[in-house]
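input
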Amino acid sequence: MSIGVAAVVFDFDGLVLDTEAPVYAAWCATFESYGCAPPTLEEWGAYIGTDSDDRELLQLLVTTASRPVDVDEMHAARRAHRDTLLAAQEVLPGVRAWIEEATAAGIGIAIASSSPDNWVLGHLDRLGLRTHFAHVLCTGNGRRAKPAPDTYVAACAALGVQPHRALAVEDSAHGVTAAKDAGLLCVAVPHSLTESLDLSAADLRLGSLADCSLRDAVARIKPDARTP
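output
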């Protein structure tokens, strides 16, 4: 029986693996270690789902720190803290079940991410998930980061599927914008750092991918949303 879509394109950070909370926690700890207030959740929301190169955060830290910042030393300590937190993270609930369901239905699966290739592929290898995705499309090689639609357009092209026949699964406002602008259906699955963001452009919002099956999620999307 058809699932109702021809492909599923997953975001990665915060959707397949909770990288967002460790990254935020490590930055907060860094700010606090220099005697200044960390970014609020509202401020942090602007960075989620796109390609932040940390320059704005670094500038904020340097200008508010109570002591001089050795940038190399700071980044080394922050990344070590981040990586310790990341090592404890597992695949988020429902992700493996949706991958298995899509695979059993014979539909294409890909990832569209604003993060660099080495970040996403490294985590997929650690989690034993890399072979499940036919294509991993990340920012770079002419593809702009979300909220630009480039990674979703590229994922659909790689899968040989028209965007209106594909379902995006996202956790951020930037990601939802990218998916919808590319012409995909979109399910939003926010987490603690994105649940207060405006995700209303998504066709369906779930608390977790474990809340329902892929088939049921597609069935819950209004028919007019599936009209190209």
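quick obs: The longest strand covers residues 108-113.
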